[in-house]
Amino acid sequence: MEDKKTYLEEQIDAVMNENEGYTFTFQREKIKLLDGLEATMIKEVDPAFEKKIELTDDELLVTIHPPSTYQNYRILKRKDQKSKWRFAYQLVKKVQEHSMERLHLIIAPENIVFDHSLTPAFLHYGVTESIPPYETDHDRLMNEMKALIALSVDEKYPFHDYLKYYETLKLSETAKEILSKKNETELLEYIKEKIEEIEAEEKLLLHIPKKKWSMQKYIGIGLIVLLVPAIIYSFYSLFFAIPRQEAYVESNRLFLNNQYSEVINELSKYDERSMPQGVQYQLARSYIVTVSLTEEQRGNIENTLTLQADPQYFMYWINIGRGKNKEAIDIARMLEDRDLIAYGLINYQKEIMASSELDSQEKEQQVKQIEGELQEYRNELEEQQTEGEQSDGSNDSAAENQQDSGNNN
């Protein structure tokens, strides 16, 4: 099975390889390029980048070697939050200052590198009437820029989800603010506000401890003397920790006796995130027995859901069982498991239809969005099945030809 194309590869209809540089391979029959000289325009931007253009009868290959001072976008996640916001600011400025009318930008994680000053640079540019994208689509560019900034500072979802499915995602307040901006000016103002907030916090962290050191020291001594930590711990153990541990022991006994509904009842008031992994596993298995699944589906899931599985799968089924379908979808997106996403969407769709908090128009709008995403999954599944049937047909034909050849001999 072929690797799934990245967003950039889909948009420019090319294959991108990263190996001691970045190579973009275009099929000439799919692009408008007529003469190799037309492609040389991309050498005019970022002259410090070493760029090589090769034109064959069938392909156009563009190879780019950035200077060693540039890093791949993936490295940004290792930076602190202030650095990420500075990168976002530089990205917006880079787009604003782009002035070469025949070169067209496309923003995607795989198309960006950045230097020590956190200034981004683009690897691929479209060329008018030669290499895609053939023109500048300002709406597309603005949406890509907002999605990449949300990915950079929020990191909860993949780039594609921020770009395509943000209306159905459970977004943080920061991501909501970014994705709501209408233009580059609004985006820059918001980014500057976030940088200023971080700088203000840094100043407080630097100066307050020095001014109030004596006060904090005596407060700490007083708390120790009064045994406040010990009292708090005793209270917590008596009313929370001990009953919870007893519930875990009882749920284990019920699970071993195949009393799955009782396992669910015993653990119903406890947060699944604070449970030990073994308890999460038993609760997830209990919900799988009770949720709406075909016997074949249930059997396949039970065979793969073992104690060694990623605990996020346990969290997914617990959320499904507890009716927290939106949270389950978020987990499935993080796992990039399309079957689980689709199952979660179907359940979420039923939840919306049954909701008394939404009016009919809101229900119709949300159900339509969910149905659109579900249709994408159906189409992809049909394509995969078609490719598989074609592959099987080709293999059968080859085998028959080989047998015929052997008979002739």
Automatic annotation (TrEMBL):
<dbReference type="Pfam" id="PF10140">
    <property type="entry name" value="YukC"/>
</dbReference>
<keyword id="KW-1133">Transmembrane helix</keyword>
<protein>
    <recommendedName>
        <fullName>Type VII secretion protein EssB</fullName>
    </recommendedName>
</protein>
<feature type="compositionally biased region" description="Polar residues">
    <location>
        <begin position="391"/>
        <end position="409"/>
    </location>
</feature>
<dbReference type="InterPro" id="IPR042565">
    <property type="entry name" value="T7SS_EssB_C"/>
</dbReference>
<keyword id="KW-0472">Membrane</keyword>
<feature type="transmembrane region" description="Helical">
    <location>
        <begin position="218"/>
        <end position="242"/>
    </location>
</feature>
<feature type="region of interest" description="Disordered">
    <location>
        <begin position="357"/>
        <end position="409"/>
    </location>
</feature>
<dbReference type="InterPro" id="IPR018778">
    <property type="entry name" value="T7SS_EssB"/>
</dbReference>
<comment type="similarity">
    <text>Belongs to the EssB family.</text>
</comment>
<keyword id="KW-0812">Transmembrane</keyword>
